[in-house]
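Dear colleague,

Thank you for sharing your sequence with our group. We've completed the structure prediction you requested, and as agreed, I am returning the results in plain text so they can be pasted directly into your records. Please verify that the sequence below matches your submission; if there's any discrepancy, let me know and we will rerun it promptly.
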Amino acid sequence: MLTVPDNDRISRVSPGSPMGDMMRRYWQPIATVEDLEREEVKAVRILGENLVLYKSTTGTYGLIQERCPHRSASLAYGIPHEDGIRCPYHGWLFNEDGKCLEMPFEDVENPEAHFRDKITVDSYPVETLGGLVFAYMGPIEKKPLLPRWEWFTREDVNRSIGITHLPCNWLQCMENSMDPVHFEWLHANLINYVAKRRGEEPLMFPAKHQKVAFDVFEYGIYKRRLLQGDDPETSPDWLIGHPVLFPNILDTGGSYQIRVPIDDHNTLHFLYRASVVKEGEEPKINVADVPWKHDDGRLVVETVIGTDMMAWITQGPITPRHLEHLGVSDRGIILYRSILSDAIEAVERGEDPPGIVRDVEKNFPMITYKTEYSLEQGARAAFLLPGQAPRQQGAPSVAVGIPSTGGQRTR
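Please find the predicted structure tokens below.
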């Protein structure tokens, strides 16, 4: 249980908040490259700030404040230019560094005033990697390298990017990743119950958890589980597990879930999958929306990611952690909260939080860490389909119930 002030401290991300300052020390994905191919100017709200992401006519990306400093018109309706973006109201031109380059009327009527040199807008560095556009919104003198996580960097994979705007705080999404036991109930039992109500056979086998454990490493936390029937001497799920990359990425092997705070009450969720291309094929990127509710308003509970989102959203805009009662299965959540608090304190002391990448040699060609997964095998799930042969020691089982990104883009 946390007090209300402590809950606010580790969940709220608006500018100037302790967690907001900490999260701004990391590169965050804010859009896909496809978004900017389809529409060169895109309004984005990240970490409580209203911004505009644009692509200039020469291909340069920029991220600046949405409000024009002249008369407060929205730059989300701006006009791309070879040097940046023009305000649609009076044509003021801003570049990716936030500098005002032109004021069409002012420059003609009063050129000696150099008025444009006195005007700037907030701006943030952006980089692209693996089909995503990343932004760094922290102090420029503290800017780290953009981490080259393996599945963003490999060139021999197809990429599938599912995007969801969730009406809840980012932290309840991340705490879910530190809770291995929920898989047995939220996914296996609930999905089987939904299937039964539809007259279908069970889809998943809810193997019981015998042990859970958590190991802190350089980039985050490995979570491990031992299931009924697993051999603790050989089970990769127990000996290695899979990592949560600090502060807001779950890696399940060839798949990332990235939970980016839009603001205190909303989250931009990326479901990023990679699969090895077949011989002779060219790698492709598919981007789609992943809905969290049906057209009739009912929440999606027929898929693994859908049941996750149901659990996150139904906790409310921000989980009331002062009302919770944690048990022994929640050790990972308690550990994660402790690391978040320590990271906030590190930033307040002027230090780096965990997992910041500054070593160029370590970052190229990619960052790798020990994992039980390979793209050739697929992610190892903890559950078997009914009737499937028992797992052999050390062998991966079949991931079930995870949907394709599905659906057409609506943006």
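Summary note from our side: The chain has eleven helices and 19 strands.

Kind regards,
the structure core
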